[in-house]
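Table S5 (text form). Sequence records supplied for joint modeling of the two-component complex.
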Amino acid sequence: MANVREIIAKRVAKELKDGDVVNLGIGLPTMVANYVPEGVDIILQSENGFVGMGPQAEEGKEIKDLVNAGGMNVTLQPGAAFFDSAMSFAIIRGGHVAATVLGALQVDQKGNLANWMIPGKMVPGMGGAMDLVSGAKKVIVAMEHTAKGSPKILKECTLPLTAANEVDMIVTEMGVMVVTNEGLVLTEINPAYTIEDVKAATEAELIIAKELEEMEV
Amino acid sequence: MDKVKTIDQAMEYIKDGMTVMIGGFLGTGTPETFIDYLLKKGVKDLTIIGNDTGFPEKGIGRLVVNKQVKKVIVSHIGTNPETGEQMHAGELEVVLVPQGTLAEQVRAAGAGLGGVLTPTGVGTIVEEGKQKVEIDGKTYLMELALRADVALIKGAKVDKKGNIYYNHAARNFNPLMAMAADLVIVEAEELVETGAIHPNDVMTPGLFVDMIVEGVK
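The corresponding structure-token record, covering 434 residues in total, follows.
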């Protein structure tokens, strides 16, 4: 089986449509850009103030003041544009971002997301995540299914929320889950796992789709 | 009116206990020359409004490390462990604000608005103590405008009237903060003659700027 992070990034990439403005979080979500299918042009938004972000800059070819929201030197695609933070978040909150992809500490069956603090332990702050999750048209959580074996997909988040009821889809190495009014539905499964495996690694109540599909890995 | 000052002349206005906005995003677009000076000057008990507390050795974070700050209002502190340590030790008050909310709070102050209504933070701890307003069935938080005594910002090119041109992603919060403080001091990476920046390329009109100091490139 291919690398877990690759499987996840590759599957998320299939959700993106030609012309979509997309915001990718730091880490695994950033990898999604590497797997966008040919013929699909997406426009990457960087919340520190530009669209048209390209791959990370090669060493020695860094351009001054051209960094992503994680402080990494990046490059530009033709058609890029810079703006200030108010416009950046007008783009995000105003519904002009088709999809945002981010990681989670916890996500639950109602589409609640927690990814910005563990009280008393780790308090990095929410940065732009709360605005992204509230404002993007589609919110995709891309993460490993468990944290060292303990479930991250819960009945109800216990950590402080990033946003309530905003997650649309969860993609892990085990499969694809969609948040619906009926609950959390497993729509695709990685053939390396059984339904029982997925259920055992998930605390949330999992509804198995009638037409459960095989996840491409 | 001659707005071009020496750093001694400009920094004289920054006193203990003041509220200071500092532009930049993880140090990109942060007026580091001013921070160098404030470190030497030892001004203390500052309240700092900025996107983040940078890194221990870069950006706003250097003032935190040097214990000159009593309160920060920022969206992110994760890249500077010193901020978290001082917060947990009770030495530093940290107010975490969603990035898009912070941008609008600053913009609102500069635009003469009392605040803004945003959906960001509804259903999270960010809503605590804030007024909620329902419009067409959607819930918003009332976030109040945020002003400062002084704004310290940075431009790539600044002319002698204070017109500013920013480079790449260094724009971020700088143009917003330029509108939202009683005294606005800009660090010019390059100080140019009035007229050398084409009016089409002016990103912050000089009318917002009180003082210009030539900084390091």
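Note: Chain A has one domain: 4-214.
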